[in-house]
Design brief:
Elements lengths: L1 H9 L2 H17 L22 E3 L3 H18 L2 E3 L6 E3 L3 H15 L3 H7 L11 E3 L5 E3 L16 H14 L16 E3 L2 H13 L4 H16 L2 H10 L1 H4 L3 H5 L5 H34 L9 H28 L3 H17 L22 H6 L1 H30 L6 H16 L1
Antiparallel strand pairs: 1-6, 2-3, 4-5
Helix pairs in contact: 1-12, 2-8, 2-12, 3-4, 4-5, 4-6, 8-12, 8-13, 9-12, 9-13, 12-13, 12-16, 13-14, 13-16
Length: about 425
């Protein structure tokens, strides 16, 4: 029964469209990420620049964050991302008064003076890095490019607490959260920093792991919604062919029927991804010929990173299809995908935990960051796998109730309406 479902699905238009879409996306977005120019190489001493890194200097972070908050306060226009979407918040007078009180605690300047002078402020927000005319970058000393400086003696811990209060006042989703304050300041990456990143890519990722992680970062974007199209199409196939009642009376359990269709859709969704992962394994091996690499990196990352997203996408599409006998599941999946994609844009350098459906790590570097957050990623992937299996169980339960006549399907509802009309006409 499973192989029949698999064969039908493999020659269906939805599967061909899924495979073609993944191939086009791979070719247009990812073909160059394994080119010679993207090869991870050991940095050499004396290079003009090694790039930038988020600063860990409390003074730079405090001044940069305070400059940003001061400017937004003066304009009464605060940038937030509460659900992953950009939202400009304007505070009423009572809330602006509270924000002025927070700024007073942050800067040591009386609240009345802040309220009186804020309209005359005009400044640019500094980030702690200066670029010279020849393109070289140097770390700047903490500069007060605005009108407020951190209060004398203000500890970084207290600063973080006050910034968290500002975030809550704005409804959350801001960069003023303590864990995101480093986004307000950057340092020039030193040779030692660049060498440490290279060594992490070599020793932790064994090179191929870095590319496999980036592969998953991109492919998960499409794998979060394309499998739902295939699953919904397969779930509605019998209804379109008017074979639903005939299938229901067969002596096969609802759980087996549901698992068969679900398993076929998941496997078909993963086949193109695994094939592309195999191709990239060969390309990585050629790119890093002579180096010690992890030949199983793509397989491990694909199954551990992408598969739970595919499982969830298919299960969500399936349960809504069983509930409504319509493609309503596609709307639910696309809505969740859109929200999660926008939310992930703020975690491009490593967003793994919580309820994020598409974990992000849009850089070859950061092996140490990935290793340090592996537990969060594992918990996230296990959570979505568990939710997916629960939704499949719920789908089987709904199907069983339909077969027993205890759950009215859309077709049964239409039949009753039609019979009612016929009786009234008689």
């Amino acid at each position: 029964m499973f192989w029949k479902e698999l064969k039908k699905g493999a020659f269906s238009i939805p599967f061909l469209l899924l495979a073609l879409s993944l191939l086009i996306f791979y070719q247009s977005q990812m073909d160059l990420y394994l080119s010679e120019g993207k090869k991870i190489t050991e940095p050499q001493p004396g290079q003009e620049s090694y790039g930038l890194v988020h600063s860990r200097n409390p003074e730079l972070i405090m001044q940069g964050a305070l400059n940003s908050l001061t400017q937004e306060f003066a304009e009464n226009r605060y940038v937030t991302y509460p659900w992953g979407f950009l939202r400009n918040v304007r505070l009423g007078e009572p809330e602006q008064d509270k924000m002025a009180e927070l700024l007073s605690q942050l800067s040591g300047v009386p609240k009345e003076k802040i309220l009186a002078n804020s309209k005359n402020w005009n400044f640019e927000v500094g980030v702690g890095v200066i670029m010279s005319s020849d393109g070289t970058m140097t770390t700047a000393e903490p500069q007060n490019t605005g009108k407020l400086s951190p209060a004398e003696g203000l500890s970084f811990e207290t600063f973080q607490e006050l910034m968290n209060e500002a975030d809550r006042l704005l409804g959350g989703g801001t960069d003023y959260q303590a864990e995101r304050l480093s986004h307000f300041a950057f340092d020039v990456k030193t040779y030692e920093d660049a060498l440490a990143e290279y060594e992490a890519a070599r020793d932790i990722d064994r090179f191929t792991g870095a590319h496999a992680r980036l592969f998953c970062d991109y492919m998960t974007i499409f794998c979060a919604f394309l499998p739902a199209f295939l699953m919904v199409s397969e779930a509605l196939r019998d209804r379109r062919a008017k074979m639903q009642d005939l299938i229901w009376v067969r002596r096969v359990s609802s759980l087996r029927l549901t698992l068969t269709r679900y398993g076929a859709a998941v496997l078909l969704s993963m086949v193109p991804v695994l094939l592309l992962a195999g191709i990239d394994t060969v390309r990585s091996a050629l790119l890093y010929a002579g180096e010690q690499i992890d030949l199983l990196a793509y397989c491990k990352y694909t199954l551990g990173w992408i598969l739970p997203t595919v499982l969830f996408s298919c299960s969500l599409g399936l349960v809504f299809t069983e509930l409504t006998d319509t493609p309503m599941g596609l709307i639910a999946v696309l809505a969740l995908w859109f929200v999660d994609l926008n939310r992930g844009m703020r975690e491009m350098d490593g967003g793994y935990g919580g309820f994020v459906l598409m974990p992000r790590h849009n850089t070859l570097m950061g092996a140490d960051v990935f290793q340090g957050n592996f537990g969060d990623l594992l918990a996230n992937r296990l959570l979505y796998t568990a939710i997916a299996l629960a939704l499949v169980g719920l789908s089987a339960l709904i199907l069983e109730q339909k077969r027993k006549g205890r759950w009215m399907s859309l077709d049964a509802f239409k039949t009753r309406i039609s019979r009612g009309k016929d009786l009234r006409e008689e």
